[in-house]
Please model this.
Amino acid sequence: MKYYVIDAFTDKLFAGNPAAVCLLQEPLTDEVMASIAREMNLSETAFVLWENDAWRLRWFTPTVEVPLCGHGTLATARALREAGIVTDDEVYFHSLSGDLAARYQGDWIELDFPSLPPTPAPVPEAVLDALRIKTAPRWSGVNDHDYWLLDLGSAAAVRALTPDRTATMAIDLPGIIVTGAGDAPYDFTSRFFAPADGIFEDPVTGSAHAALTPYWSNVLGRTDFLAFQASSRGGILKVRLAGDRVLIAGETVVVAAGDLRIP
Model:
């Protein structure tokens, strides 16, 4: 089975968010896909299969299957183009989060995701304690995917955050987004933690921007943004709110390609 390792949301090797992409020739069991994801040991491994006249796309962390993965989708679109399988300007995927589209735009690939806006809610004290946040966020809320969003006010506050890793990983939440107004040229900055999925800090997270984009659109009164995710690897995203959809664009770099043996 052909596979790729691709860095997403970057134009440089060993930056952005790495994902493995497996180009399936036939269906695999959940157990085999989970084993492959553990073997790859990246934040996400994507599995894509042409079945019943459509691309079926699933994503696994080393511990669980997840319903939506931005960088894994971006990497999959690049892998299908790299392998010469998709030559059109668009590719569509069926996923656990519904139908997703990816559009090729020069060096960038644009994803079409559902908008997942957070609604106001007081953040659990355990989250504040684990992230070592001493003052109340400017705003907090949670969306339908149980992603919490905390606005700390500034990019400096987001970068300065030093969470307690053990305490964070003990929280049974799939997503914790911390954000703040960006330093130029960026409109906003964020970081993302996914303890319930076995991920302490995700390098760059497309699905988090399905929540961040409608939030910042409401705050700033705009729909188009240049965003930066301030992990150690860093990542740049162009995002746009389009009604009940969020368009998320990023660049990609192919790191490796090879053949994977299947039992």
